[in-house]
Amino acid sequence: MAAFTTWRRPRAMLYAVAGVVALGFFVALEITARRYGLPGPVTNQVQEVVLPPKSGFLLYAGMALMMVVLTWRQRFIAVGAAIGIDVVFLLVRWAVGAKLTEGHPFGNGALWVMLGCMVIALTRRTGRERALLLKGAGLGLVLVAGRKTGDTWLLITAKSRPAVLDRYLATADHALGNPSWLAGRIVEAMGPIGAHVLDYVYIQLPVAAVIVTIYQLRNVAVERRFPRHHLVRTFLAIGLLGPAIYMVFPVVGPIFAYGSGAFGTGGEHWALANLWPHTPPPISAPHSMPFDEITPRNCMPSLHTAWATAIFIHSRQGPRLLRYAGTFWLIATLGATLGFGYHYGVDLIAGVVFALTIEAALRSLARGWDRSATQLVAHGVAVFVALLVAYRYLPVEMARHPWLFGPLLLLAMGSVIHGYVRTTRLWEPKAAPALRPEPQPELV
User: Could you write out the DSSP letters of every residue in 347-389?
Assistant: First the structure.
């Protein structure tokens, strides 16, 4: 028991420090957003206690994550309570004549249940049971808070970065054959059904992450403990670190920088020309260009690609259906990011490297650092930085020599993929060989 207490104390300190840092980050982001005249993540989250939530699906997905720590009886009670609260909200809004102009008419109940479980953990539970319920409720709330934080980050990038670097990426993208322009024409030829499918996959990426995570955490209620590493840790780390790169390399995407395209209005009033997706931009010396203060600078790297890559990686340990779903979500997300003109091809390469590097770092923290972990993470960081430097300072050379730089970009990404697969396979526990029974003498 003393050994268990000694082991728990540093972990408790680690969680306490992480909580303080997270709280400080939310407060700082709230203050920064207010300076730009915007509501921060804390304000947006508090409003959804009563007002129609922006994403009811995400709130119920967060509640589903929380329920991995509950018994089946408690799960039925939680779901029933959430639905009942949502019905009450619907009736009250109907009675007072409140019109739903934006957001979803459901989801408040799920948020109330998660907050209620947090209160129950603090007031009615002790010891391990309190810690487990707090982790479960915190996991669901952190997923929702991560979405709010990301939305605030995007607004801040638009307000604080008046100039964008799209010309650099559009020029560098010639080395890959302008894949966004090609994918845009393919999606346009698919018609509305194909576009709707890709759009749904693109928007509901967090729900796919929750499905994979629920499978990973399926034994938590029985074992009464969380695994050392799971998808939500990677998902949140990508969302936390990615916007910092947006601030360094602000880009709005081809559909905004190069015309409205075929899928509704883009940033045509600020666009260079209406070129996407039928006419690739000419090769010329790039420079920054001013853009509006509304469109997020959220292209470099492609975080949707990074998140889809993380889902694909974590689905590999699941059953065949989950592996197929992870593969489909990755391919469809790549098609949507390019086909809707949200990203350039070079964004996707950077997103894959970004995801693998973060995943390697988090897995190393969970299992313990060693030389192979350090080399893997250092290699990923070096390749990611080299990509950003090349996109910024060598785009014309990349465009003029596509048969050289195109394969180099793919090889750079491939080297990180190969290093990750090779190293993580060494980390997997080896199954002990089955013992063969020794031959016994036969009776004659």
Answer: HHHHHHHHHHHHHHHHHHHHH---HHHHHHHHHHHHHHHHHHH
